[in-house]
Amino acid sequence: MFRLQGSKVLAVDMTQDAVKAKNGSMVAYDGEMAFKKLSGGGEGIRGMVTRRITGEQMTVMEVRGQGTCWFADRASEITLVALQGDKLYVESSNFLAADAGLRTGTSFTGTRGASQGNGLFTTTIEGHGQAAIMSDGPAVVLRVSAQYPLTVDPGAYVAHQGNLRQSFQSGVTFRTLFGEGGGEAFQIRFEGDGLVYVQPSERNTIAGDV
To answer: Which of 14, 108, 129, 132 could form an S-S bond across to 96 if both were Cys, CB 3.0 to 4.6 Å?
Structure first.
């Protein structure tokens, strides 16, 4: 059971079950807990190969036991996402925790990953259960529909779910418009039906102002 204590701490109540969480994010626990370090990028041989190719740096731990475990990371805001058999795409740096029964993997993101310096792949979480994602400031959930596509600054993107198509395009950001940009600007366009999570702060990038 996932629940928030405030907006920056995740409490997970366990009864001999398990949760996957970002390595080093446990801040306290009661009861009896066992910790095991896993590898990010997915399970099994395919996950190992994907991590080797992409240089995926996310490390995950499995926590199993009886009691309550609390997770947090750099005072980031936490948002709970309920999955009903669908797939959540989330930047590795924004992942905090997920039910152990959820499948994790990687997905190719193309230009956006290269522009952010986070690798060419993003983390996927799929199945039935709960996941917790982090953001720099309270996350805003934006609806995408057939009538209303959405364009997002890559530095503010956190995650998305639903039947969405992504495209990557050069564009002009406000910083570029006012003469503060020093490189090529990229934007992400979402079309279809689903939800996009953005943060009110832009992460640092390495391919110009995006």
So the answer is: 132
